[in-house]
Amino acid sequence: MALMPVSDALSAVLAGAEPLAAEMVTLDDAFHRILARDLAALRTQPPEAMSAMDGYALRAADAAEAKARLKVIGEVAAGRPFDRVIGPGEAARIFTGGVVPAGADAVVIQEDTIADGGDVVINEPAIKGRHIRPAGVDFHEGMVLLKAGRRLSDRDLSLAASMNHPALPVRRRPKVALLATGDELVMPGATPGPGQIVYSNGYGLRALMRSEGAEPVDLGIAADTLAATVAGIRRAREANADILVTTGGASVGDHDLVKQALEAEDVEMAFWKIAMRPGKPMMYGRLGGMRVIGLPGNPVSSYVCAMLFLVPLIRSLLGREARLPREIALLGRDLGANDSREDYLRAQLETRADGALIATPVTQQDSSLLGNLALSQALVIRPAFAPKAAAGSACEILRLPL
């Protein structure tokens, strides 16, 4: 089977990936969820003209010059509107958030006044409209302020609450089941025996899933037998997973059984093996409504493939822009010519004094080196058959999550 280009593989993964159904959640549960439909304000904010400062509400014409003396006819506090009209020569004591009384068109701050018995002396000329927040200065009822597909921030939740929404329609979290495979894997904290390694892939992958808004389901580690791998696939179906992610067992060795197990469970394979480095043995297929991504076992390959394919798929199911944004940077060192596979080189970023973004690929690019992956902030993307590139030349990068 010929190696599939990365762009074709991504198109296959995203084909038919429609946003999941919406569900209502409370404001406190909506942080970083994806808004399922446009959200319009249910009220006008502020609903009436309100004072922006503590001071006195008055008619600007009555205090056009300093030292004007006005009669104080009452007090206006937030939540307690004044039921009288401010007439000529009158003022009302007002506090921040108080509704500006009818007849008043200005507020003079407390610091620019002197209370004198039942009067107030205005030491600074009043300016019409000053220190007044007009009705609707923030937003009006019916205005769409939050758009579908938005990942809700803390500030968005404050806005939604002010719009008078106690709950929000968000996309259901994609349920992503993760099945590791390999007799050689032991859990962190254990003492590896001869030929064994500590299992690491799942921790980074589940964190990546959560950061993208998915709900991880840990299916544990399956032994290198067809029966154990098939049982793991069936557990994913029983969990109603939207996506099954396997790690390891995707290559061509006698103990690499994932493809065989998937086909035994009637998974329709779209591709197996991609023209990329790292991550050549990645596979993808469908089992009914469940999508299946088979990641390589090498930890760097597993993570890079998850970034390039799993993250866009999760975003697509959430109604977000699926394709990850790329940027242009300058190479920090010379690179040799590339072969027939698209390269994703782990790289460190720095910004020069002149503002230029420099991407320097780490020297060792072996797909088992987690230390270099953890120190990297981006992937430098090298097309297939790219010629030699000198330090300082432009390159395309994909930033890694912080």
Q: Provide the CATH superfamily of the largest domain.
A: MoaB/Mog-like domain
C-alpha termini separation: 37 Å
Shape: elongated
- Major beta sheet summary: 6 strands, mixed
Structure notes:
The structure is a single chain. The chain has seven helices and 26 strands. It is of the alpha/beta class. It folds into four domains: 6-20 and 172-317, 3-Layer(aba) Sandwich (Molybdenum Cofactor Biosythetic Enzyme, Chain A), CATH 3.40.980.10; 22-45 and 138-171, Molybdopterin biosynthesis moea protein, domain 2; 50-133, Molybdopterin biosynthesis moeA protein, domain 3; 327-399, MoeA, C-terminal, domain IV (Beta-clip), CATH 2.40.340. Strand 20 and strand 21 (290-295) form a beta hairpin. Helix 1 packs across helix 6 (299-317), helix 3 packs parallel to helix 6 and helix 4 packs across helix 5.
Give the topology, please:
Blueprint: H1 6-14, E1 22-26, E2 39-40, E3 50-51, E4 55-58, E5 68-76, E6 90-94, E7 106-109, E8 113-116, E9 119-122, E10 132-133, E11 144-146, H2 154-162, E12 167-171, E13 175-181, E14 185-186, E15 197-198, H3 201-211, E16 215-222, H4 226-238, E17 243-247, H5 258-264, E18 268-272, E19 276-277, E20 283-287, E21 290-295, H6 299-317, E22 327-331, E23 342-351, E24 357-361, H7 370-375, E25 378-382, E26 394-399
Helix pairs in contact: 1-6, 3-6, 4-5
